[in-house]
Amino acid sequence: MTLEQRNTALRIVALALAPLALAALAASRLWSVEAMGDGAPARLLGLTPQPCPGCVLCGMSRAFTAVSHGQFGRALEFNPLVVLAYPAAWFVVGAGLFALVHFARRAALAHNFARN
């Protein structure tokens, strides 16, 4: 795999993950910590909220929501990994936007080249 192929693959992955990261960040801002804990996103989708299985991500939704509302201490209580996951979500959104601009510019250049 060439460097260009690897970079293209990474951009495609970023484009695929960016909407999910953006949805998580938007949900964390829209709902309160309490609503998130009560399963508001699942209810919005018509699903029944399930209890947390106790994995390493347990409390991450509430932690994201707490950070989005400026409650950093509370976020760390829910899940200390939020220190890594929250900035990573913003990074993925940014990488997705960068990839979108990259592919749009490349398509525009190809279109202009084909016209000439």
Short description:
With 116 residues, the protein is an all-alpha fold. It has one domain.
Number of strands: 0
- Cα-based radius of gyration, to the nearest Å: 18 Å
Catalogue the unreliable spans: none
Largest sheet: none
N-C termini distance? 31 Å
H/E element order = HHHHHH
User: What's the number of structural domains?
Assistant: 1
The helix count comes to 6
The percent of residues in helical segments reads over 70%
Strand content: under 5%
- The shape is elongated
Structural class: mainly alpha
Q: Give the rounded overall mean pLDDT.
A: 90
Structure description:
The chain is elongated and about 60 Å long. Helices cover 76% and strands 0% of the residues. α1 (3-30) crosses α4, α1 (3-30) packs across α6 and α4 (60-68) packs antiparallel against α5. With 116 residues, it is mostly helical. The model has no long low-confidence stretch (mean pLDDT 90).
